[in-house]
Write a structure and sequence with these properties.
It is a single chain. Helices cover 75% and strands 0% of the residues. It contains four helices and no strands. It is globular, with a radius of gyration of 16 Å. The N and C termini lie far apart (36 Å).
Length: 124
């Protein structure tokens, strides 16, 4: 087996978690008829899950961009937020094609809020 170059290992260590996390979000979005109940606590739990999912994505993006670009911290944070919001838009678009699921602009706002909160209050 040919050893990976150090640059490739660094690149994969930074970006593979982002790709895997996006894949996990995609997988969860692809589950048909995911609604369990319409109880208020179930709705709140799902919205909190949206925020956590995209908060984690935003943090992973900061980590990846910090290690792979010479950008200043502010630009990295803004780019991470933009990328997380774009992925939230694509996630909702995708859900529009899944049986029993709907695309919701409100969910994009909730996802964006989770990303923003993670970037704003959980700085490393």
């Amino acid at each position: 087996m040919i050893p990976a170059s150090p640059r490739l290992r660094v690149f994969l260590s930074l970006w593979l978690p982002v790709v895997v996390w996006c894949g996990a979000i995609f997988y969860l979005s692809h589950i048909p008829n995911l609604r369990i109940t319409q109880e208020w606590w179930d709705i709140i739990a799902r919205k909190i899950a949206h925020m956590v999912e995209f908060g984690i994505l935003a943090r992973l993006l900061v980590r990846a961009l910090s290690g792979s670009t010479p950008w200043p911290r502010k630009k990295i944070i803004l780019a991470s937020l933009a990328m997380a919001v774009l992925y939230a838009c694509s996630d909702e678009y995708h859900q529009g094609f899944v049986v029993g699921r709907t695309a919701s602009p409100m969910d994009v706002l909730i996802d964006a809020s989770g990303a923003w909160l993670a970037l704003r209050f959980f700085r490393v």
